[in-house]
Each structure stands twice: as C-alpha cells, then as structure tokens.
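Hello K.,

You asked for the raw outputs rather than the summary table, so here they are, unedited. I folded two proteins back to back in the same session to keep the settings identical. This is the first:
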Amino acid sequence: MTLTAAQNHILMVVDDEVDQRRLIGGYFANFGFQIVESESAEDMLSQLEQIQPSMILLDVRLPKMSGIDALPMLREIQPTIPILLITAYADLRQAVAAGRSGANDYLSKPIDLDELRTAVFDALNLADIDDSSSTISLPELPPDFVFHSPVMKKLVETIALVAPSDAPILIQGPSGAGKEGIARLIHLWSQRVAGPLVTTNCAGLSPTLVESELFGHIKGAFTGASEDRKGMFRTANGGSLFLDEIGEMPLEMQPKLLRVLETHEVTPLGSDKTITVNTRLIAATNRDLLHEVQTHRFREDLFYRLNVFELIVPPLTDRKDDIMPLARYFANQFARRQVRMSPQATQSMLAYSWTGNVRELRNAIQRACLLCQGDVILPEHLPAKVVASLQSDFGQANQSPRGGRLSQMERATILATLEEVGGNRTQAAKQLGISRRALIYKLREMDVNSQSE
C-alpha cells in the first residue's frame, strides 16, 4: 500500500468521544487518509450534505440518536457507501441485526487497530500494508525499556500511535510482565510528558480511604482528616494517572470513578464543591475484566469507559528473544560492571518458564550478581529451579533433522552467544560446545547472516 492510494479516500469517524475520534483518525491519517470527524449522528447527517466520504466508521452508542437508528436515514443519503459499526460487547446482537438493515460490517470494542485497518482496507479494495515492513517512526526509547522480540516491537509501535491521544488506555497482562513500564512509556511519548505521572496500586488502597486517596478530602471530612488533601486525580492534573490492578477497585467506588471520567470533575470527600481536572487515566490489570463484568464484579459502563484502547503485554515465555537482552541489562545494573552469562547459564534461562515474568527474571539476576565474584554468571549463581529446567545439554537438546526448524530456545542461545563474542563464529562454536561446521549449518537453518571471522 502506498500513501497515494489512501490519499484518494475520505474516512468519516463518528463518535461522541473526542479521544476515540482522534485516536482512530490519527491512526488512519498515518496511512494518508483524509479524516472527517462527527460527534453525533445528527452532525454526521448534516455533514453528508456537503461531504462525500469513502467510508464511515459509526459508533453505536451516540447521544440522542444511536448509530443503529441513524442507519436508515444514512442509507437514504448514501445508498452504497461502506459503513462499519463500532460497538460495545453488549450491543453485538443489535449490531448483527443492523447488518441486515444497512451496515456492511461491525467491530466490537476495545478496538484492535490491526483488525480495524484490515476491515477498512478490504472495504475500499486497498492493498493492505505488510506488518513485517512497518516503518512507524518511534520516539526515543528510555534506556531501561529493553526488548528484542517481534511481539514487543509491535506493541511498542502501537504505543507510539496511541500515546499522543488523551484516550484512556487499559493495559492487560500477567503479573510481573512490565505493565507499569508500558504506562511510563505511554506518558513519556504523550503530549503530557511535562506533567506528572502519578502511580498507585488499587490492591494496596485501603477500602475505607480509597475515595480520599483518589479524589481528596477537606479538613474534618472524617476522623483523622487534620488537613486538606488533593487526591491523586488533582495531583496528576496536566499529566497522567496510572491505576494498577484496577480490577481490585471496590465495586461501590466504581460509579464515582466513572463519573470523573465522564465529567472530568472530582468532588473531594466532605465537600460539595466540584473541581475540574485534566488528567489522563491509564489502567492496568492481570484479570480478565470482561469476565469480571459478566460475573457482576466490575461495572460494564466503567469497563468500556476505561477500555477505549487495549494494550496486551505478553508473558515472558511468549517472548523468549527478550530474556537475554533483559538479563544483560539487569546484570549490568546490579553488578555495576560488565558481566556476561556462560552458555550453560544462558541455556538454563532460556529453558525456564519464568512464570513470574520480567520481575522474576530481575530478581534471579540480582541474586546471581550477588553470588558472582568474577565477570561471568554461571548456572550455580542462578536459582536452583532455573537450572533444573534444562533437561539436557545443548548438543543433545532440541536436535532436529536436516531441514527441520530450530527451537526458539536454541535460536536465542546462538544469537546471544554470537552477540557476546562480536559475531566470531569460531569463538561462538567453542563457547557453545559444538563444531564450527555445526554452527554454520544451524545459522543456515536460521537464515542468519552472521559476521564471519
């Protein structure tokens, strides 16, 4: 796909949430589309008298007239234009029915930008872009944000697209996977970087004081309230508020949080005065919030308000290419000197499941650096369960017939060793305990162009 092809098309985005419109519009503007925004069905119908868009992205939940109610009138004005409904989970049945009365397709929230892009490009008969040849320009990464895997590269590229928006973002992923690091990157790449980033863990908030912690209180509001307190939303004014483990928020507090997100106003505990705040909310959870909604442990309306856009952080076991770059970074931080991992230690770390994710890896490397007296981390410096995960040595493990595929662990071990020795194949083969010829064969299997000696 070339930008020239997309530049011939006008995309109309209809949503009453300005952040959602800007997020979707900004995403497609990157491909060259001309973007027209509408905040209501009435506004859309009025604009269609002067504008001939190529396609309409129509939210179902709109004030006054819903997107579904607007479909018959829309079809009278534009009988053939492609219409894509964007719907919350609870509206799916309505959206399917609407497909019989004018909508070409529908997507459910939270919106997956890749899925949305495919739907738009297919509807307009445009050749889609190749993800592997993505040329998204990334801002500068902080030195402590370390990754090498393709799945994390894709996640970081998505962050670069959504960070400039003020839309709420929900980060989902297992404990220890690095959700707070993702939140910090969103803030760093946002338009709010000059403002504060306030972080808190909802699981650590006292149930009796959570309202005061979030929204503040006035002096005398309750026993012990000896002075006024601003609360986190006001402290984060002009910046971002990161609420980790949002699924732990008490059910009775959720309507109050929803109101703040809708009105951008807080009322301190003990006061009847509302205060306007300009705070972007980033939330994270290791729970399946949709399941929590279905079991009535989390409010559906708050879920969709938080989940304008969803980022999923994969567990470390699904991005093994990140293990050794992260391990080397942590080792240099804790040892405060250049240390390297022995091939056997590398194999053990790559074979281990890391159920505690990045946090567990960090702790294991901190322990290894305390035990390591030299400049090489050996298997005996690692936790016993990490070493025990390696069932056989490198030469016997994961052997594949000629033309077979190497395991992810073996591939990562070879790449890590080559990087450690500056690409010298002879030295890498010696460290790996195999012949140089065997290493060259494995590199051919991997289709890696490694620097020759």
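The second followed immediately with the same parameters:
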Amino acid sequence: MKIAIAGTGYVGLSMATLLSVKNEVVALDIVPEKVEMINKRISPIKDEYIERYFKEKNLNLRATLDYKDAFNGADFIIISTPTNYDDEKNFFDTSSVEDIIKKVKDMGINATMVVKSTIPVGFIEGVKKKYNIDNIMFSPEFLREGHALYDNLYPSRIIVGEKSERAKVFANLLKDSALKADIEVRFMNPTEAEAVKLFANTYLALRVSYFNELDTYAELKGLNTKDIIDGVCLDPRIGDHYNNPSFGYGGYCLPKDTKQLLANYNHVPQNLIWAIVESNNTRKEHIANMITQRKPKVVGIYRLTMKTNSDNFRASAIQSIIEHLKEKKVEIVIYEPSLKDNIFSDCKVINDLEKFKDISDVIVANRIDTNLEDIRDKVYTRDLYSRD
C-alpha cells in the first residue's frame, strides 16, 4: 500500500518508520529542514528506535513538502499534525487537521483519512457534516516521547474509531508492522474512541498529580516521601508505576488533553477533572515557593526538557517554575546543551556546565543526573527514583 503521513512529530515519524518497513510511505511536512533530514535518514527527533531503524532498516520512506505528491495514489492518509488547547479562547485548535482534510477533499481522491492527532470529543462526526465527507476516521495513539516507535512496535492496544472493513484493514496494517504478538484490538464509534484518548491521558495526569500532592504533604511535614510511596505502592491494586514525584506533568499531551476533557464537561457534573488541572498549577507554585525559601541570589535551571531522554521543551513543567521565579524577581540561569541561543525566556543560557554549577546558588532539576553528583548539596529536586 501507499500510505501518506501528514506531520512528522513523534506520532507521524514513528508511524512513518513503522509502516515503511512493509509499505510505501510518503511523509509530508512544512519544514524543509525536517524533510531533508528524513530523506538523509537523520531523525529530527530524539527516539532510540527511530534512529536505529533509520540506520539499520531498508525503509520505503521518503519525505516531501508537496502535499499532492504525498496524497496522490495513497490508500490511507494518516493525519498527525499538531493540535493544542487555547486557554484564552477556551477551545481546542484543530486548524492543522482541518487544513489537511480540506486539501484531500479539494483533490477529489478516495483515500481514507485516519486522524492520529489529539482531537476533541465529537470532532470526527462534526467534520463529516461540516465538509460533507465520509472518508475519515480516528485512531488514537498511546505513545511516550522518546519511545514512540517502540510503543508502536509493542502497542498496549490498537483502537480504531469505526466499525467497518476499512477500519479492519487499517488495524491490520498496524498489527502486521508491530513486533508484539496478541495485540488487543478494539473497534468502536469515533466519539467513544476520542473519549478514550482524553480519559486515558487524564487518568495518567491524575496519577502524576496524586503522587506529587503526596510529596508536597511529606515535604511540608518533614516526612520521608519515599518511605510513604514505597509502602503505598506495595498494594498490588496501586502498583509502583507513575509514582515518581516531579515538578508537574507536561509535554505534548497531558496539559492540553486534561484541559480539553474539562471543557467537554461543560454542563456535566464533575469535581475530579477540574481538580486534576488545578493540582498541576498548585504543584508548580509550591515548587517555586520551596526554591525561594532558600533565598538564592541565582537559581540555576538544569535542563528544560520534560523528562529524561526527551528533546521536547513543549509545556515542560520547569518552564512554569521559571515564570513563577521571575515573578518573584529571582535571577535565573539555564543549562540546556540542546539550545543554541544565549537567552531563553529572558534568562541567560550557560552551556559551560562547570560555570553553571559555580554561578548557581540553587540548582533546580526536575530529574536528577550524574552530572550533578559533585554539587548535590546545591540541587533541589523531587526525583526519588532516578526515572520518569
């Protein structure tokens, strides 16, 4: 089959890599540098398995800036363009997805569009009516940043938001390209599939928030957080996953998905969903307060990335901490070796690690690193398990 992929972020590039082992795949992007890198088999994102497949596999994959080149003759067009929740306008921005839908419609081709971008509940039914189309369905992705291809090779489940023969064909494409045996596959209506995505990510955000609030309590009461978490998580109903305290949840999905789900609860009784969103804000304020209590002249921010083995800054919790500290008139310097600029968010970037350590009175690290062992007394972190 020929498969087109619109958007080459974590979702799109992992899909393109996965499916190009056995199919012809053309990846579309609007950034020339990314297209060039993919065609040279250089991954534009940090992902161990994508990098390995680019080096070791004979992939039938090319990238292009021309959407007509990508879409012509395609059996499936997978849409994985970025969407985001607009806090000010209180709506989910799906303009990039709709732009692809309009392009496909204007071309008059019969390819089936499969939306992999995160979308609001009811989106697919809405665009079918809005554009008078039927050749579109939704299939949520459940990927971790930095492990996107791995999670496609060994998926927890495959969900397709349609009960049809073409849905089965698409599900089989994913199954046949995966390495895991006995993958759970579920077919359901599009609106239920959209809800699955938002509720799954909001539950993960709930779990992160729960252990963060446990940690806040222990920190302010002078208790040993790790002992409490270890004891709580020995209960097999709770388990010891997603329990490492942090500065808050962040990244591509959890912040926008929780807010979107909350917006979907308009006129529906709830307390918990609102609390998950607010808990993350409260946690960040608490972290900033604990840092300023040390009365530092200069606060050093060690890495801007959301988590270990990620190159993503988007909505990372540490950026909110920086904003809170700036409001408190604290001088901030940043160590982020992946940044080429000398300034980030009006703060000085120092990529000489020793100089960064020396100038900083307190070093703030969402995740601890062996690079900081020699100045451990300066480090403020809530990382207990040295893992995400």
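The chain has two domains: 2-188, 225-380.

Happy to rerun anything if the numbers look odd on your end.

Regards,
P.
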